[in-house]
Amino acid sequence: MTMSLLHHHPFSAASRFVRLVLAEYDETVEFVEEKPWVRNPALLVMNPAGTLPIFVDDNDTVVSGGSVIAEYLVETKGARMGEMRLMPEHAADRAEVRRLVDWFSHKLHGEVTNYLVTEKVYKRRMTTAEGNNSPDAAAIRAARANIRYHIQYIGYLASRRNWLAGRELSLADFAAAAEISCVDYLGEVPWDADEAAKAWYARVKSRPSFRPLLNDALRGVPAATHYADLDF
Length: 232
Fold this sequence. Notes:
Elements: E1 5-8, H1 13-24, E2 30-33, H2 41-46, E3 54-56, E4 62-64, H3 66-80, H4 91-125, H5 137-160, H6 171-185, H7 195-205, H8 211-214
Parallel strand pairs: 1-2
Antiparallel strand pairs: 1-3, 3-4
């Protein structure tokens, strides 16, 4: 049997989301780093949208998209562990997890993470033909304005629940943490905006499954000094 593969980029938040779930389930996979800004014909065969991540299971099942892969892992790898950990038992509770996963993976990503990662990470790796140019200052300003609202929303949830979606740790926490971790690496999270959000992130960041993300390093773009500090 072949090893499972994850086509990813270290600063693709959706890829980080899947990496966290894989680590939480103690799954060993082979990581294949891709360039999200390049339309790779081989990847288009697996995922016509041309987006990351793409997961190829050890049975050759191909699954695309962070939230889709995450639920696939819950149903397959979680089931192997004898439980459906990371998704609640009741339908209404699962709906809330999915609502928040969608919120973080689309709204937070679209209003904050995508701007900052594109301008501060991807553009530094692009060739001129691929669109390399100066960072868009307006996009960075928009992300910096938007993130305060999102941090406060995370704090609102964290102050009223044990975890973001309810009583138990769920996919919602990892979807949010994946986005925040990219922004935090760049030193762009205003942790003074909400203490409850900071305390929640410290709990997630302290999990063993988070350690590989804290070891990520990008040549030419050093991590914020507090990035890997569990007591930040």
